[in-house]
Amino acid sequence: MKARIDTVLGRVTMYRLMVLVLGAIALVALVASSLGQLFYTPLQLVLSLIVALVATMVSSWVLALAFRTRAHLESSAITGILVFFVFMPTADAGALLLLALSGVVASASKFVLAVRGRHISNPVAVAAVVMTITTLNLSAWWVANPVLLPFVAVGALIVLYRTRKIAVGLTFVVLATAIVTVRLVLVGQPLLDSLWLALGSFPIVFLAGFMLSEPLTLPPRRRQQLAVAAVVAVLFSIPYSFGPVYASPEIALVVGNAVAFAFGQRRGIRLRFVGRRALTPTTAAFDFEPVKPVRFRAGQYLELTVPHRRVDSRGSRRMFSIASSPDDEALVSVGVKLSQPSSSFKQALVDLAPGATVRSTWVGGDFLLPADPGVPLVLAAGGIGITPFVSQLAERARGIGRPVDVVLVYAVSSAEELAYAPELVAAGIRVLVVAPTEPVDLPRGWEYLGAGRVTAAALGAAIGDLEGRRAYVSGPPGFVDHVSTEFRRAGVRRVHRDFFSGY
Hints:
Layout: H1 2-10, H2 14-34, H3 42-66, H4 73-86, H5 93-112, E1 114-115, E2 118-119, H6 123-133, H7 149-162, H8 166-186, H9 191-201, H10 204-210, H11 222-237, E3 241-242, E4 245-246, H12 249-263, E5 269-278, E6 283-290, E7 301-305, E8 317-321, E9 332-337, H13 344-350, E10 357-364, E11 377-382, H14 387-398, E12 406-411, H15 421-427, E13 430-434, E14 446-450, H16 456-462, E15 470-475, H17 477-489, E16 495-499
Parallel strand pairs: 11-12, 11-15, 12-13, 13-14, 15-16
Antiparallel strand pairs: 1-2, 3-4, 5-6, 5-10, 6-9, 7-8, 7-10
């Protein structure tokens, strides 16, 4: 069931998923308003949503032209819907103009509040801070109400699950709810009433699912993300005021974004395309020369942006594990499966001319090998899921020394699909190949494990000390879910997972 959910969600880009989920909540709000369950009328909701969307999308397009870049319309649509949920719905012409201004401020923050191309803060939070402090348009966060809470909670869960940020969201929700509930109890509210008020009337769940979880404003590592969630929860829940600045969800998020920025890559990443190398009949390596050195850890991934015309539903941005070693500052390489029919993104990637410059907006991930090279490891890769392991093994060979004891289980759709074979041979590790037929002329130290799905029995028979190893699994969602389960059945206690959802 989990593998099926991962596969279904993986077919939709994160931007498209956000638009669909937020749009569904807006539709529920309209229905609830028509039934008299919300304070706002259907006309107010419809007019406000249209104004917010038009203002953010048009201003993003104009600002992109001014800054000589290309607008990301799905991102602009997300910003517009969030503006709709944060500011008061209205049908008054003057108030609608201020709502439009809020959308313009949100769009402008993406371009103005950026350091070397990297966003610093959530644009809607910035707009809420600016408009509230100036008293032009006070933030209302009207989406936080008991009627919409079940739908917001389901939508937030979908987004957090898809982005693998459930721990971050739960950290914020639990801590913020606990603090707000205690505050209400201390002023005389009954415990259950306080708990319901905290969840139903404060934008705790909405903030966690749709704003705090934004990848571009989160730090790269999980423990850093949890720390930021805790900081935002405390600032969200404890009242304070300094002149025109007082405790609010937007202030808490902006401060948390600043903390996250201190953790992460402090510049946008520009990569100059060097060339493409065929790895297998269906995969290729795309090599880039970074304009400035890129900081990353072996096993991490980057979000690559390739602007192009006639963008399809998959969008112009995609996450890729980095296959090159962090020690090689002159190269950033990614492995790509070039399936047919190809997405517009992959076609644009294939069509890149040497010397063309593309951008990356984010580098992060926690799929990292132990610092101690003496820890026995078993790695499992499904197809192009081999890429993070190539980076990790190359780093260890060049830096802190070869891993003492590593076994790689490499599952491919055919014997011709063994990508990065020379790099794996150079790593000097034992490789167990899973393929429909046995490959001819396997390198020394490589063995054919068999055809079909990887099983606990086959793993246990091939790797006698499996229980004492730490496991790492990378590849498509279905492969990762299945092999992780088989590893645990075989007695492996610690399994680290990295899957290419939405690849």
